[in-house]
Amino acid sequence: MTLADGIGLVAAACSTIGFLPQALKALRHRQTRDISLWSYLLFVTATVLWLIYGLSIQSTPVIVANVITLPIALATLVLKLRLG
């Protein structure tokens, strides 16, 4: 693993973990009033595109980050759609 890959994996972990508290709070409280639907639609779209990009360039940090982030973002989006 290169230094760049290591830095990428740490950045990926930070980015992914950063969205986890919001998802857990929404799930725990069953309240998503303060979450922007458009923000999460854009975020999920960006995550899918980053994953496709990572796969196309075979970048482990980009792939790992987005494979982990996508379900978290999708869960939050689904909660937002269901709970309003």
From TrEMBL:
One GO cellular component term: membrane
Keywords: Membrane, Transmembrane, Transmembrane helix
Main location: membrane
Subcellular localization(s) per the UniProt record: Membrane
Sequence intervals crossing the membrane: 36-56, 62-81
GO molecular function: sugar transmembrane transporter activity
A Pfam entry, by short name: PQ-loop
Protein name, as recorded: Glutathione synthetase
Originating species: Hankyongella ginsenosidimutans
